[in-house]
Amino acid sequence: MLRKVYNPFKNGSTWLKADFHLHTNADKEFDYNGKNDKYLDKYISQLKKQNIQVGVITNHNKFDLNEFKHLRKKARKQNIFLFPGVELSVKDGANGVHCLIVFDYDTWYINRKKHDYINQFLSSAFEGVMDPGNENTTCKYSLDELLKKLDDYRNNGRDSFIIMAHVEQKSGFIKEYGGGRIEKLGENELFRKTVLGFQKVRSLDIIQKLKQWLNNDLPVFIEGSDCKNIDSVGKSPKQNGEDKNTYIKLGDFNFSALKFAFLDKENKIKVNKPKPQNAYIESIKFEGGKLDGEKLKFNSNMNNLIGIRGSGKSTILETIRYALDIEIPNEARDIEYKNELVENLLGSGGKIILKINDIHNNIYKIEKISNV
């Protein structure tokens, strides 16, 4: 029997819990003493336990392609989408500055040609550097040089973006840079275009300083578990006893959708999962008539019916009105035409079934049979 695959986007764009700072067994700092043949299952099971559906693998100065392939494949079976990344330490500040780089897997790794541009990039970044896998080792690039290097790759069709890691801690953006340096970075077009997130922002006074330094135009604040063992994979960090989470609104599992969400941060990235603010039609199903067996699914937010003239947009709307017993106003000039649309679609004995979700998440089913 084939396993039924759950589609998280069956009703369009949806909110998914994300972890943008994941380490794995390929990282020197990750502690795993279990059986090797159980590692992948345990890792993905922990992500699922924490309800993570979007994650970025960001090991220190390293990308293990083989491990990532296996994790990504197993994760997809659980409707978890993993992006390739790296926690790169650039040679700025007293301790280096940690940058979480998120790569577009489809362009940085080309399977049919066996081209791994991520490790090509890392080899160049650590050319002549000893022990690059150590979290305290810095690459040969400054942040300014890294921005230019990633822009070169972008211009050659390989996109990426940066999240500054644990910004208030050692090797963090704020800890290692002073206000004057941050102000200067804020004037850098490549910084604005490439650095789309700050991880683990905690202090209100720091937020106020960032607003001043960056002219009130801040990257989005996001979270990540920064896990060092299986038990901490995907686990929400806490502040004042409360979980700090990141929910991202996606309509598909791909890099373009992820980056677009970061660019539209006010609408597509939240600390808490937004709840529907109104009742909505979840789906419409037809039995009999011209759309016999068809089912249309809707989102709790805005839905669009797109089609050329005469393709059936008005027919769908009028059929919904009919099912809900909404009368056509007497002053309407096209009453007969609207009724004919419904009759033509459902025919005699055709049924429409509406599944409706109210604001309290109660589900109702409304059925109506055409009595033409």
TrEMBL record:
Domain Rad50/SbcC-type AAA: 292-349
Lineage: Bacteria, Bacillati, Bacillota, Clostridia, Halanaerobiales
A family per Pfam: AAA_23
Gene Ontology MF: a single term: ATP hydrolysis activity
InterPro entries listed in its UniProt record: P-loop_NTPase (IPR027417), Pol/histidinol_Pase-like (IPR016195), Rad50/SbcC_AAA (IPR038729)
GO process annotations (BP): double-strand break repair
Species assigned in the record: Halanaerobium saccharolyticum
Protein name: AAA domain-containing protein
